[in-house]
């Protein structure tokens, strides 16, 4: 069974159970936020004979539901319908409030342009107060009928927005002679925001550009280019975590079908109903960051859909052919594309990466090139994540630097990633022989014709005696 077949089989399993099994097998929850993440982790382990597909399926079947079935009936369907209807009304009123605030700013700017020269955005406290008033109006008709539990669930799903200094949110806001610590950034307080990783190292210049791109109701899209393991995906994840915005990650590969991406008709209760795909759901969530991961592997039909969604236009929308419905992209939704190339296809190291057409690339206002961390920072991160000593981590990073240089010269098909160094370091720190850990974490990840080159680099750069003494 090839990797594509494995991914397809895993993608059909229940999301919650699959994520729990992935965390259990990986031994750490780091990087596993969605079903796609779990599929990627498990496919990698199955393909490299670290676990069998049968064991994964058995583990998934063993997982019990996180919450036991309640002994009593759930909320009254009529109340639930009212709650859902209220959320729709709230969403519409939020949009109307935002448009009114924007119109007021524009009118004031025309009338007293000189006085408002320094104004960047609406008064967040005024908008929040207006939102609270609108919410209260919508809740009034059914508030007395809804249970506290239902009201609490609705409250948790409502957006909350405030402005903060970038310097109070991010660990680094200076580079060269530039300090953007006073830049005002929007904090969304979205309950679906990803978990924050304290030790992620932001490239300050990239962060500054990304925050500027997001500083608009109709944000600029951003393309992230760079070798695997240079932190592209984690950059967007931690950006979303600190801004408390929902992150939707779309992993492109040959297994991603139109039904998963956009949606499809399905049977429910004997009726044919439309089931929304991942991108259709994502664009309806105000403030969401949508990460188009490995977009170079996207099929042509998926890219054609993205053309309409990523256009920097107030009319950006998705039209569903099956239903005729037009679904507009919600306010402040921003798209990030992560690719090993800058959109110009396979450079030799990543077979199958498609070249993107100019019209699609032009929809991304900025392109950020990601490089590996400086050796000292990379070693420090390995120490923090794995517990390896600084001296031992330095030896691993020294090897990685030499191997990456060889990859740039075409002597290796790809450079070793930071993820591989983490795995190598964790295994060594826990007592696995250095050479065996190296083989399992690095050599076995490469094509067979790279083994001789990697072995020679290992012999030249890794002194096993010195590394063992440094543990």
Give a topology summary:
Elements: H1 3-11, H2 15-26, H3 35-47, H4 53-62, H5 77-111, H6 124-139, H7 148-157, E1 162-165, H8 166-169, E2 174-175, E3 178-179, E4 184-187, H9 204-214, E5 221-226, H10 232-243, E6 247-251, H11 258-261, E7 263-268, E8 271-276, H12 278-282, E9 289-293, H13 300-310, E10 317-319, E11 326-328, E12 334-339, H14 358-361, E13 364-370, H15 375-386, H16 390-408, H17 418-429, H18 434-441, H19 451-461, H20 464-470
Distance between the termini: 39 Å
The Cα radius of gyration reads 25 Å
How many separate domains make up the residues? 4
What fraction of the residues are assigned to beta strands by DSSP?
A: 5-15%
Structural description of this entry:
The protein has 471 residues and is an alpha/beta fold. It has 4 domains: 3-62, no CATH class; 77-158, no CATH class; 204-370, Rossmann fold; 375-470. Helix content is 48%, strand content 13%. The chain contains 20 helices and 13 strands. The strands form 5 sheets. A 5-stranded parallel sheet has the order 6-9-12-5-13. The chain has a two-stranded antiparallel ribbon with strand order 1-4. It has a two-stranded antiparallel sheet with strand order 2-3. β2 (174-175) and β3 form a beta hairpin. The radius of gyration is 25 Å and the shape is globular.
